[in-house]
Design a protein that fits this description.
This protein has helices spanning 27-38, 51-58, 65-84, 98-105, 121-129, 140-146, 165-179; strands at residues 2-3, 16-20, 41-43, 89-92, 112-118, 156-160. By secondary structure, it is α/β, with parallel strands linked by helices. It has a single domain, classed as P-loop containing nucleotide triphosphate hydrolases (Rossmann fold). Strands 1-3-4-2-5-6 form a 6-stranded mixed β-sheet, sandwiched between helices.
């Protein structure tokens, strides 16, 4: 399901943000706040998973690269459509591997900023076990095993999600704003 907000003054139409990380890091919460604060159109990456992926994860089976390929392609198409319409976006996606981020980044000619949310395993498990979601905490270790941190040539950075949510959101907004050239920053 796609949600959105009015385009903020000063944020050019080509800005795209991916809030990434393993399950339980708060991607949805942070992306919603970024959309509201910076005037970005938001989509929840989980809403783009095909039913087979949801069933597989619900059963506690990790996704393969082949399972993820159509999902990533759909997210890239969503971003490209909004780019063509002149709309800045934010989406949630685990984006665990560099190759996955390359698919998302490759959808638009302008830089994509990645906000990599990180947290301690204990905090993430606690969050996962107290929420309504198809992803069981038993898959967290497979996500950590798959995770490839952002590389030096990837726009973005890391935000610690073990902190209070207000601080996490403020840090994410600062990261995204700092990644924009001065004429783009709101």
């Amino acid at each position: 399901m796609t949600r959105g907000a009015a385009q903020a003054d000063g944020v050019r139409a080509h800005r795209h943000v991916v809030v990434m990380g393993v399950s339980g890091t708060g991607k949805s919460t942070v992306a919603q706040a970024l959309a509201a604060e910076l005037g970005l159109v938001l989509t929840e990456g989980d809403d783009h998973h095909p039913p087979a992926n949801v069933a597989k994860m619900s059963a506690g089976t990790p996704l393969t690269d082949d399972d993820r390929a159509p999902w990533l392609a759909d997210l890239a198409t969503w971003t490209a459509r909004h780019h063509e319409a002149g709309t800045a976006t934010v989406l949630t996606c685990s984006a665990l591997r560099r190759t996955y981020r390359d698919v998302l980044r490759g959808a638009v000619p302008e830089p994509t900023v990645f906000v990599h949310l990180v947290g301690s395993r204990a905090v993430l498990v606690e969050r996962m076990e107290h929420r309504e979601h198809f992803m069981p905490s038993s898959l967290l270790d497979s996500q950590f095993a798959t995770l490839e941190p952002l590389e030096a040539d990837e726009a973005g950075g890391v935000v610690d999600t073990d902190l209070p949510v207000e601080r996490v959101v403020a840090d994410a907004v600062r990261l995204v704003t700092a990644a924009m050239p001065p004429e783009e920053a709101p």
